[in-house]
Protein backbone atom coordinates (compact mmCIF):
# COMPACT_ATOMS: atom_id res chain seq x y z
CA UNK A 1 0.00 0.00 0.00
CA UNK A 2 1.55 3.31 -1.09
CA UNK A 3 1.33 6.59 0.84
CA UNK A 4 -1.69 7.92 -1.09
CA UNK A 5 -3.73 4.75 -0.55
CA UNK A 6 -2.71 4.60 3.12
CA UNK A 7 -3.92 8.14 3.76
CA UNK A 8 -7.18 7.44 1.94
CA UNK A 9 -7.72 4.22 3.89
CA UNK A 10 -7.04 5.88 7.23
CA UNK A 11 -9.42 8.73 6.42
CA UNK A 12 -12.10 6.29 5.32
CA UNK A 13 -12.01 4.52 8.69
CA UNK A 14 -13.37 7.54 10.55
CA UNK A 15 -10.64 8.45 13.01
CA UNK A 16 -12.66 11.51 13.98
CA UNK A 17 -16.00 9.71 14.24
CA UNK A 18 -17.65 11.15 17.36
CA UNK A 19 -19.24 7.77 18.04
CA UNK A 20 -15.78 6.36 18.77
CA UNK A 21 -14.31 6.62 22.22
CA UNK A 22 -10.76 7.00 23.42
CA UNK A 23 -8.00 9.46 22.53
CA UNK A 24 -7.12 10.06 18.88
CA UNK A 25 -3.70 8.44 19.17
CA UNK A 26 -5.34 5.21 20.38
CA UNK A 27 -7.75 5.24 17.44
CA UNK A 28 -4.88 5.81 15.02
CA UNK A 29 -2.84 3.00 16.57
CA UNK A 30 -5.82 0.62 16.44
CA UNK A 31 -6.54 1.51 12.82
CA UNK A 32 -2.93 0.93 11.76
CA UNK A 33 -2.95 -2.37 13.67
CA UNK A 34 -6.06 -3.40 11.76
CA UNK A 35 -4.40 -2.64 8.41
CA UNK A 36 -1.41 -4.76 9.42
CA UNK A 37 -3.56 -7.67 10.60
CA UNK A 38 -5.62 -7.54 7.40
CA UNK A 39 -2.46 -7.77 5.31
CA UNK A 40 -2.93 -4.35 3.73
CA UNK A 41 0.28 -3.12 5.33
CA UNK A 42 2.97 -5.72 4.62
CA UNK A 43 6.04 -6.40 6.79
CA UNK A 44 8.81 -3.97 5.89
CA UNK A 45 6.44 -1.28 4.53
CA UNK A 46 7.69 2.26 5.17
CA UNK A 47 5.21 4.55 6.91
CA UNK A 48 5.01 8.33 6.42
CA UNK A 49 7.00 10.48 8.81
CA UNK A 50 5.22 11.92 11.84
CA UNK A 51 4.88 15.40 10.32
CA UNK A 52 3.70 14.16 6.92
CA UNK A 53 1.09 11.83 8.39
CA UNK A 54 -0.11 14.46 10.85
CA UNK A 55 -0.58 17.02 8.07
CA UNK A 56 -2.30 14.54 5.76
CA UNK A 57 -4.76 13.44 8.47
CA UNK A 58 -5.09 16.91 10.01
CA UNK A 59 -3.92 15.57 13.37
CA UNK A 60 -1.44 16.91 15.86
CA UNK A 61 2.11 15.67 15.41
CA UNK A 62 2.14 14.51 19.05
CA UNK A 63 -0.89 12.32 18.27
CA UNK A 64 0.98 10.53 15.48
CA UNK A 65 4.19 10.30 17.51
CA UNK A 66 2.34 8.72 20.45
CA UNK A 67 0.54 6.24 18.20
CA UNK A 68 3.84 5.23 16.55
CA UNK A 69 5.49 4.92 19.98
CA UNK A 70 2.75 2.58 21.25
CA UNK A 71 2.95 0.43 18.12
CA UNK A 72 6.73 0.19 18.43
CA UNK A 73 6.37 -0.87 22.05
CA UNK A 74 3.96 -3.63 20.98
CA UNK A 75 6.30 -4.79 18.21
CA UNK A 76 3.94 -3.88 15.34
CA UNK A 77 6.28 -1.13 14.09
CA UNK A 78 10.03 -0.69 14.15
CA UNK A 79 12.27 2.35 13.82
CA UNK A 80 15.34 2.11 11.59
CA UNK A 81 18.01 4.69 12.30
CA UNK A 82 18.24 7.17 9.48
CA UNK A 83 15.48 5.46 7.48
CA UNK A 84 12.19 6.03 9.31
CA UNK A 85 9.34 3.95 10.68
CA UNK A 86 8.40 0.59 9.17
CA UNK A 87 5.90 -2.19 9.69
CA UNK A 88 7.82 -4.73 11.75
CA UNK A 89 9.62 -7.38 9.73
CA UNK A 90 9.23 -9.90 12.55
CA UNK A 91 7.69 -13.10 11.29
CA UNK A 92 5.46 -15.78 12.70
CA UNK A 93 7.71 -18.50 14.02
CA UNK A 94 7.66 -21.79 12.14
CA UNK A 95 8.53 -25.26 13.34
CA UNK A 96 10.89 -27.15 11.05
CA UNK A 97 11.41 -30.87 11.48
CA UNK A 98 14.98 -32.11 11.77
CA UNK A 99 14.19 -35.65 10.71
CA UNK A 100 12.49 -35.01 7.34
CA UNK A 101 14.53 -34.11 4.25
CA UNK A 102 12.69 -31.58 2.11
CA UNK A 103 13.40 -28.43 0.15
CA UNK A 104 12.68 -24.88 1.28
CA UNK A 105 10.17 -24.52 -1.56
CA UNK A 106 8.26 -27.66 -0.54
CA UNK A 107 8.22 -26.55 3.12
CA UNK A 108 6.78 -23.16 2.27
CA UNK A 109 4.15 -24.54 -0.12
CA UNK A 110 3.02 -26.99 2.58
CA UNK A 111 2.39 -23.96 4.83
CA UNK A 112 0.38 -22.17 2.16
CA UNK A 113 3.16 -19.67 1.47
CA UNK A 114 4.66 -18.62 -1.84
CA UNK A 115 8.37 -19.53 -2.00
CA UNK A 116 10.85 -17.57 -4.07
CA UNK A 117 14.58 -17.31 -4.57
CA UNK A 118 16.74 -14.31 -5.40
CA UNK A 119 20.12 -15.22 -6.81
CA UNK A 120 22.96 -13.49 -4.97
CA UNK A 121 25.72 -15.12 -6.99
CA UNK A 122 26.08 -18.02 -9.42
CA UNK A 123 29.30 -19.47 -10.76
CA UNK A 124 30.70 -22.69 -12.18
CA UNK A 125 34.27 -23.44 -11.17
CA UNK A 126 36.49 -26.05 -9.54
CA UNK A 127 35.92 -27.15 -5.93
CA UNK A 128 38.11 -26.25 -3.00
CA UNK A 129 40.09 -29.08 -1.40
CA UNK A 130 37.52 -29.33 1.41
CA UNK A 131 34.65 -29.46 -1.11
CA UNK A 132 36.46 -32.08 -3.19
CA UNK A 133 36.73 -34.25 -0.09
CA UNK A 134 33.10 -33.74 1.00
CA UNK A 135 31.68 -34.26 -2.49
CA UNK A 136 34.02 -37.09 -3.47
CA UNK A 137 35.25 -35.23 -6.55
CA UNK A 138 38.49 -34.87 -8.42
CA UNK A 139 40.07 -31.44 -8.25
CA UNK A 140 39.20 -30.67 -11.87
CA UNK A 141 35.50 -31.66 -11.74
CA UNK A 142 33.38 -28.48 -11.96
CA UNK A 143 30.76 -27.53 -9.38
CA UNK A 144 27.91 -25.06 -9.37
CA UNK A 145 28.18 -22.48 -6.57
CA UNK A 146 24.76 -21.00 -5.98
CA UNK A 147 24.14 -18.36 -3.32
CA UNK A 148 20.47 -17.44 -2.94
CA UNK A 149 18.18 -15.46 -0.70
CA UNK A 150 15.12 -17.57 0.11
CA UNK A 151 11.82 -15.76 0.61
CA UNK A 152 8.27 -16.68 1.58
CA UNK A 153 5.47 -14.32 0.56
CA UNK A 154 8.20 -11.81 -0.26
CA UNK A 155 9.77 -11.93 3.21
CA UNK A 156 13.49 -12.89 3.41
CA UNK A 157 13.99 -15.94 5.64
CA UNK A 158 17.30 -17.59 4.79
CA UNK A 159 20.53 -17.30 2.84
CA UNK A 160 21.53 -20.56 1.15
CA UNK A 161 25.00 -21.24 -0.24
CA UNK A 162 24.95 -24.50 -2.17
CA UNK A 163 27.73 -26.40 -3.93
CA UNK A 164 26.55 -29.09 -6.37
CA UNK A 165 28.62 -31.13 -8.87
CA UNK A 166 27.70 -29.99 -12.37
CA UNK A 167 27.45 -33.63 -13.50
CA UNK A 168 24.26 -33.91 -11.42
CA UNK A 169 22.65 -30.75 -12.81
CA UNK A 170 24.02 -29.59 -16.13
CA UNK A 171 25.48 -26.17 -16.89
CA UNK A 172 22.08 -24.60 -17.62
CA UNK A 173 20.70 -24.98 -14.07
CA UNK A 174 18.94 -21.68 -13.38
CA UNK A 175 18.67 -21.39 -9.62
CA UNK A 176 15.41 -19.47 -9.25
CA UNK A 177 13.33 -22.52 -8.35
CA UNK A 178 13.82 -25.50 -6.08
CA UNK A 179 17.30 -27.00 -6.32
CA UNK A 180 15.87 -30.36 -5.24
CA UNK A 181 13.30 -30.19 -8.05
CA UNK A 182 16.11 -29.57 -10.53
CA UNK A 183 18.10 -32.52 -9.15
CA UNK A 184 15.02 -34.74 -9.28
CA UNK A 185 14.34 -33.70 -12.88
CA UNK A 186 17.89 -34.72 -13.81
CA UNK A 187 17.46 -38.14 -12.15
CA UNK A 188 19.57 -37.31 -9.08
CA UNK A 189 17.09 -36.90 -6.25
CA UNK A 190 18.65 -36.68 -2.76
CA UNK A 191 17.28 -39.35 -0.42
CA UNK A 192 19.20 -38.74 2.82
CA UNK A 193 21.28 -36.04 4.44
CA UNK A 194 23.39 -35.24 7.47
CA UNK A 195 22.73 -31.82 9.00
CA UNK A 196 24.67 -29.89 11.61
CA UNK A 197 23.12 -26.91 13.42
CA UNK A 198 25.07 -24.10 15.05
CA UNK A 199 23.79 -20.97 16.77
CA UNK A 200 25.50 -17.90 15.30
CA UNK A 201 25.06 -14.14 14.96
CA UNK A 202 24.75 -12.45 11.58
CA UNK A 203 27.52 -10.29 10.15
CA UNK A 204 26.49 -6.86 8.79
CA UNK A 205 26.32 -8.06 5.17
CA UNK A 206 24.12 -11.10 5.86
CA UNK A 207 21.94 -9.12 8.27
CA UNK A 208 21.31 -6.47 5.61
CA UNK A 209 20.28 -9.13 3.09
CA UNK A 210 17.86 -10.67 5.61
CA UNK A 211 16.57 -7.24 6.67
CA UNK A 212 17.47 -7.68 10.35
CA UNK A 213 19.92 -5.94 12.65
CA UNK A 214 23.62 -6.73 12.50
CA UNK A 215 24.44 -9.30 15.18
CA UNK A 216 20.91 -10.74 15.14
CA UNK A 217 20.71 -14.44 16.07
CA UNK A 218 20.60 -17.04 13.32
CA UNK A 219 20.91 -20.77 12.82
CA UNK A 220 23.72 -21.99 10.60
CA UNK A 221 22.78 -25.33 9.02
CA UNK A 222 25.41 -27.32 7.15
CA UNK A 223 23.91 -30.14 5.09
CA UNK A 224 25.51 -32.93 3.09
CA UNK A 225 22.92 -34.74 0.94
CA UNK A 226 23.36 -38.14 -0.72
CA UNK A 227 21.84 -40.17 -3.51
CA UNK A 228 20.54 -43.71 -3.10
CA UNK A 229 23.97 -45.05 -4.12
CA UNK A 230 25.62 -42.94 -1.35
CA UNK A 231 27.24 -40.40 -3.69
CA UNK A 232 27.19 -36.87 -2.27
CA UNK A 233 24.99 -34.65 -4.43
CA UNK A 234 24.94 -31.40 -2.45
CA UNK A 235 26.81 -29.45 0.20
CA UNK A 236 24.91 -26.45 1.56
CA UNK A 237 25.53 -23.84 4.25
CA UNK A 238 22.39 -21.89 5.16
CA UNK A 239 21.76 -19.05 7.59
CA UNK A 240 18.16 -19.05 8.85
CA UNK A 241 16.69 -16.09 10.70
CA UNK A 242 16.62 -16.88 14.40
CA UNK A 243 13.33 -15.05 14.86
CA UNK A 244 11.57 -17.19 12.26
CA UNK A 245 12.40 -20.82 12.99
CA UNK A 246 12.19 -23.41 15.72
CA UNK A 247 13.85 -26.66 14.67
CA UNK A 248 12.31 -29.69 16.35
CA UNK A 249 13.02 -33.42 16.51
CA UNK A 250 11.03 -36.32 17.94
CA UNK A 251 13.02 -38.45 20.37
CA UNK A 252 12.24 -41.98 21.54
CA UNK A 253 13.59 -43.65 24.66
CA UNK A 254 15.99 -46.50 23.94
CA UNK A 255 15.13 -50.12 24.72
CA UNK A 256 18.21 -50.39 26.96
CA UNK A 257 16.94 -47.75 29.44
Automatic annotation (TrEMBL):
The keyword Protein transport does not apply. It holds the Pfam family UTRA. Residues 22-90 form the HTH gntR-type domain. Coiled coil: none annotated. Keywords: DNA-binding, Transcription, Transcription regulation. It comes from the Bacteria. The keyword Transcription applies. SMART domains: HTH_GNTR, UTRA. This is GntR family transcriptional regulator. It comes from Rhizobium aouanii.
Amino acid sequence: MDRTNLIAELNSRGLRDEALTGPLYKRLAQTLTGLIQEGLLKPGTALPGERDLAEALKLGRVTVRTAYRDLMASGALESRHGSGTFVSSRVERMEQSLWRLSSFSADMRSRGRLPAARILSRAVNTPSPEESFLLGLGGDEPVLRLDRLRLADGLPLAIERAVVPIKFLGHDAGGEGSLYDALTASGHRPVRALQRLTAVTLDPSSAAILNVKSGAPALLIERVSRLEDQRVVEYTRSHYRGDAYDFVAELRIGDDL
